Each structure stands twice: as structure tokens, then as C-alpha cells.
Amino acid sequence: MLITAAILLTASCAGLAYISFRRNGDATLAAASGILVFVAFLAGSVLRPVEFTAKRGSLESAIAERISSSDQSPAAVDQQSLDDLPNIPVPANGRIDFVGVRSGGRLLKSRTPALHLDEDVELRGRISDPIAGGATSGLFVIVNSSQRISAASAFGSDSQKVAFIVDVPASLLRRGTNQLELGAIANDERGFFKLPDRVTVTVAER
């Protein structure tokens, strides 16, 4: 399809060039121009394949900028403390704005990702403590409404909300379908709030 598009575009350019140069009586130069346009376009298409990676939007740029400037990360929460943390029945403020699959050096956007064992699901967005306001004390992943996982995360905060990036390896999830939610630890660490968003992730072996 790419080559077909190149040929059609080249033919159009050559036609225009021919008409233009024919007025000056130089058809040879017109034909040469068409050939040069074709070679240049085809070479550019072959040497520069399309990458299906997520484009960095304003949210992702803001998160990356905040994280690089502040380099903030929440303190690790041990598993026992995480399991004992009570759920405060108030939804956390914020949302998951981006869901993707990180595979090698590529990040592919997908609202319902399908992962292999060597890949991660990446969640990005903003969140805050709905009662105290401002930053939470940390984030963790709730898998299938029961299992709590301390996932690698990064924060960049402003006065109102915290921009986050959370990576969850497929190796920490069960094979088949998983439901992921985010738990936000309260500012005073007395419990956690659930973010209303839920992400469906499928894990399969290669």
C-alpha cells in the first residue's frame, strides 16, 4: 500500500512538473524531475518505517517534565502494611488518562491491553486525596478486587493533584483476564481510596 501511494503521488508530481516544464519546451527535464521525486519519496518511505507507538501528548509531556524536575517517588510500602490498609469508602479524585503496553523500548496505547509475560502494562493519569486534598502518600495496584501489588511508580506533583506513571509487569498477574484498579494511600496514611477507573488486562504466554 505504501509503494502504491508513492507511485500515485509520484505520478501526480511528475504530471505537474511535465505541464510546467512543457510550457518552456523542456520535456526531458520534466521526466527527470518525475523520476527524482519518485526515488526520493520511495527511499524515504523504505528507510523510515511507521512505528505504532503512543505519541507524547500534553498529559504525558507534563508528567515527564514534572517527574524529571522533581524526581519524586513514594516510599515503598511493605506487603503486610499494604494488606492491612483499610479502604475508605470515598473515591479518589482523578482518573487514568492513558493505558498502554510497554514492550522492549516501545509503548503501545491500548485501553484493553493483551500482554505477554515479558511485557508491562503502563497506567498514567492524575490523582489526589479527596478528603485532605493535594498529594496522596503512595499508589498501589488492586488486582481482581483482592490482591494488592506495590508497583513501580513515579510522581510529579503540583498544588492540587499528583501526575503518576505506574508500570505493572505481566509476570505479577495471573494468566487470562485481570481487572486492575488503583489504590491511593491517604495523605495521613490512615487508609486508602480507590480510583473509580478499572482496566481489563489479558495475559497470555507466547
Summed up:
30% of the residues lie in helices and 33% in strands. The protein contains four helices and eleven strands, in the order ααααβββββββββββ.
What layout of secondary structure does this protein have?
Elements: H1 2-22, H2 27-47, H3 58-70, H4 79-84, E1 93-103, E2 106-109, E3 114-115, E4 120-128, E5 138-143, E6 147-149, E7 152-157, E8 162-169, E9 176-185, E10 192-194, E11 199-203
Parallel strand pairs: 3-11
Antiparallel strand pairs: 1-2, 1-4, 4-8, 5-6, 5-9, 7-8, 9-10, 9-11
Helix pairs in contact: 1-2
Verbal overview:
It is a single chain. The protein contains 4 helices and 11 strands; from the N terminus they run ααααβββββββββββ. It folds into 2 domains: 2-47; 58-203, Sandwich (Immunoglobulin-like), CATH 2.60.40.650. It has helices spanning 2-22, 27-47, 58-70, 79-84, and strands at residues 93-103, 106-109, 114-115, 120-128, 138-143, 147-149, 152-157, 162-169, 176-185, 192-194, 199-203. By secondary structure, it is of the alpha+beta class. The radius of gyration is 25 Å and the shape is globular. Helix content is 30%, strand content 33%. Strand 5 and strand 6 form a beta hairpin. Residues 1-6 and 39-73 have low confidence and may be disordered.
